[in-house]
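Researcher: Here's my situation. A collaborator sent me these components and asked whether they could plausibly form a single complex. I don't have experimental data yet, so a predicted model of the whole assembly would be a useful starting point for our discussion.
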Amino acid sequence: MIKTFLRRIAYAALVVVVVLLICALVYGLVWLLNQLSPLITASATIVIAVYTWALRDSTNLLWKAGERHFELEGPFLHPIIQSHSTIAEGLKFFSMFNHPTSPVTPVASEARFTIRNVGRSLALLKSVAARMDHWRSRASIFSRDMTSSPSSNPVRRRNKSSPGR
Amino acid sequence: MTIPIDKAAFESLKSGNSHLFLYGEIAFSDLLGEDYVQTFCFAYNFNVKRFVLWAGRYNKRGRATDIRFKV
């Protein structure tokens, strides 16, 4: 009877000691972490910075992928030359009368084109401006804004948008 | 598009000293309302007797807000 009582007391004391040891261990760990908090904060900041940089790179790659997707899937209007036979005929005319004394007059050269949507999605055509010129150098053509230049020759200009295909 | 070509221009075209250019801009928008500009430039090739695409930098598509081609 007494032995059983003493054994239970011993178990209880052992449990109390173990609990106190665990509490001390937790307290020590918290104290240690508290002492190292500046270092932990600095380390966490560095990790977050690296992660943010990696996230920035991923966002840039995603943006480029979107741009690439637009290139492949977006609308793409481009002129298709329909006829330019007059040019060849005019040049042929000069070839026939190629003698220096031949009385030749300027020949009107003409080219026709249509606008075709070669993209994969619908486009709404707004305006077309085009010119045909005889140039020695191509350098100065796009130095001016054709859409605002009074010398540009608008072929077709609509107030309302219309399907391009 | 029509332009007159005289004998001097013909000789220049024939010798390759100059070219006949057909160029311009197409403004369009997609279904989301984003505006785009496509520039194009063809040059008449005297040898093959037809228009061919000129330099790639003159045949570009871009958003209307940021496309300004520099030569």
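Model: Some features of this prediction you could bring to your collaborator: Residues 73 and 120 of chain A are 5 Å apart (CA to CA). Chain A touches chain B through 55 residues (CB under 8 Å).
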